[in-house]
Amino acid sequence: MEATVADAAAKPQQNAEIVIETRNLTKDYRDFWGRQKVRALKALDLDVREGEIFGLLGPNGSGKTTTIKLILGLLFPTSGEALVFGKKASDVSKNERIGYLPEESYLYKFLNAEETLDFYGRLFDMTPAERKRRVEELINMVGLDWAKRRQLKEYSKGMTRRIGLAQALINDPELIVLDEPTTGLDPIGTREMKDLILKLKAEGKTVVMCSHLLADVQDVCDRIAILYQGDLKELGRVDSLLKVRDVTQIRAQGLSDAAKQEIEEVIKRHDAKVLGIENPTTTLEELFLNIVRESEARPGRRATESK
Amino acid sequence: MVLEKPILPLLEWLRLNLPTFAIGLIGVVVLGLLIGFLAGALRHGPMGSLRIVLQTMSAALVDFRHSSPRRIFAIARLAFQESLRRRVLVVFGVFVLALLFAGWFLDPSSKHPARLYLSFVLTSTNYLVLLLAVFLSAFSLPNDIKNRTIYTIVTKPVRPWEIVVGRMLGFSAVGTTLLILMCIFSYFFVKRGLQHSHQIAPQEMVNQTLDIDGDSMEQQTGESSLTMAHRHEVTVGPDGRVSVSNEHDHTHAIAETPESSRDGEYLLGKPKGFLEARVPVRGSLRFIDSSGAPGSGTNVGYENKYRKYIEGGSLAAAIWTFEDVRPEDFPEGLPIEMTLRVFRTFQGDIEQGLTGTIQLVKPALRDENGILIGPDTSWRSEEISFPAQDYTTFRRFIPRKIEARDPQGNEKIVDIFEELTDPETGSIEIWIRCLDSGQYLGMAPADLYLRASDRPFWLNFIKGYTSIWFQLVVVTCFGVMFSTILSGPVAMMSTLAAVVMGFFKNFVFDVASGELPGGGPLESLVRLIQQVGQMTDLAPGLGTTIITRIDDVLMLVIQTVSYAMPDCSIFNTSGFVAYGFNIPGELMVQHFLITLAYAIVASIVGYFCLRTREIAA
Lengths: 307, 617
Ligand SMILES: Nc1ncnc2c1ncn2[C@@H]1O[C@H](COP(=O)(O)OP(=O)(O)OP(=O)(O)O)[C@@H](O)[C@H]1O
Ligand SMILES: [Mg+2]
Hints:
The structure holds two protein chains of two kinds. Chain A is α/β, with parallel strands linked by helices. Chain A is built from nine helices and ten strands.
């Protein structure tokens, strides 16, 4: 399959403001003595524009979390730079406008839900009344009203995840960075999370998320980047990336074996190759697996966004 | 109580110490910059490194400007909550139990029970609180980094200052809470532990005939009942007034007389004099030799340089000069208190004690060596004898009207403030001599003083706890500082090491300056292995030279490090409280300033460590 590099439609809205910009962003993890252990990210160039939902995809260990940490200033780049709202990632003042949900919810286990949100609220410039209102609103939004007086150490994984999300939204941020937002959530929670992300977009917020759950990404993301071992492999609008023009997929119901045989023969007669007649898979999954397979076969090829 | 150094007035102290502090601060900053630069140079080359260092410095200023009390408070509050939820208050329970158990072991028959009780509660509180401070402060930040909760903090608009200072404040607040609880509890523990009473029945008293100015008078006297291993002598004077003798640092008021009490006995009420906060007026001390010439006192060998001795039955005298003694401060006369040492060259009558004399002298004009300029024109009071017993405080009130001799030897009753003090400077001399020839009396500048007034004891007790509080804050700040770069256990060990090094600071300095025999660490090791005593020199040769050279370098490093370490022992005021002296306000202010200085340095270092640290690495 020939990878379809983004066409004209993939161009982001040129007039929208750039929220995140990475230039040649590279990260080597080093050990105590400064010797290089892993090159987790290689010369990443990305633009994320205002109002879009941007997805980072990639297999485990491909550098998604590393990218996010670099953008937030939790890691210092080995070379290159990341700019958020035009400010350096190490600039603390950018955090006023950012909400971040880490990979796992790293929260203070000895606080209860209300105290947690109250604490994070105090780190922002809000009046006590405003903070109180916001805390209540968010607890209701993530559906934890029934457990808000319990300490977080008693929470289940999904409940912790929900309070983690509430924490990320405490300051009504313009940019929300979500590292695998749906892990640990039940199907209803997953649905709610996706609805929430779309709602945030409708409010004009920018969302950057990374996930393994391709269906989720496909449902909500406007643009995606696919990373593989620190290399950017694919970048573009989801709809255009998924349009595979030279492959026809036949979906039918109630075909007999004889009928399938017949169809196969018809295809052969037209000099085409049968790729397989099977239950359809998610198309993004197909793309994803292809990239991974191809990268393993031919390492080094990289994608760039055509503008 | 040993007071090695006189307490300087605040301005004088600042003049002496501010330059040291400034040098120390500059040293830390330069060292920090150098380390930062070298670390950067390894990765980015010298120019890149220089740029990074400059950027970091300017960023630090920006961070400082944007620090908000609100966020510092939020983080301090979190630290406080964290400690409470981790059940830190259990420490108070441990403390209460420890005191209750110790109540059994504190020997009530001690000659100085108040000293015993007070030093016990102060010392145990001190150690417990410092230990707590180390544990609290060293683990919090490393835990946050390990659990990655710090990710959700540093991605909020929180400056590294706020994380460091907030924690310092929060944990200090936890320690303060505990300290207040301990302070209140120990106060009542001491009060209760010292509480006791005696009785004496009038029929147990014996009659005595007194001869006062030729009139013979009757008085009754007797020994009270035995409590806490002592009895008081109770005397009913001719005028019917009851007096109780001073025993084991205290006396009692009469609570009930035979007429009012049920069993017809005298009941001695609450102990008085155990818990005091005396305000001493101190003077300067010089000596006269047995020949009568100015000298420096005799060293009897087993004492440190601090205390010197005068020979009995000779011209030798110890002379305290007090400045600015005014009738406004001592309207009735001079209350003299002294605690002298006794050194016997032969045993004599141990029970009796030696006899010393006190004489008030109007200072004559002297040069800086104490040699008279011109004729001795001074008035001298009569010599008042007193019993000198080792370690025992002797009090004598000298009334304003006293018999004195003018230089020609004419005796006359005079007013202390008219004939015996210098009218301009208000200075007066107190001469102490020993009458028993062959015996010695030992004294140091702080051993004799005028007891100007007393402050409330509870206030002094609180001041003593405030000194512990200073240590708590310093240790907390250092714990937090270390925890910004080190893992929890390592940070804890480092803080402990810092505190211990602080305690041995003077020792380290003495070793380094060669004042102590035995040499540095390597030389000491060699001595240990070869079993060579500290006083013998090692055999000269190449080996010894190398060893001493390496030691010099090692000692320099240790000295530099220990210089920066907080010396908690300087905050130790438990001696004041235990020995019943008011802790001077000036000392408290000095300690406060030292605490502040350490806190500032620790937060600056902590800030840079946290700031340059890659949180998620
Ligand atoms: N602290 C670290 N020290 C050393 N190597 C690290 C560190 N964190 C991540 N890595 C390495 O960097 C690479 C990228 O890791 P990263 O966490 O960014 O992957 P990811 O895409 O988020 O994976 P996942 O989907 O599993 O979350 C991996 O090879 C990982 O081993
Ligand atoms: Mg990840």
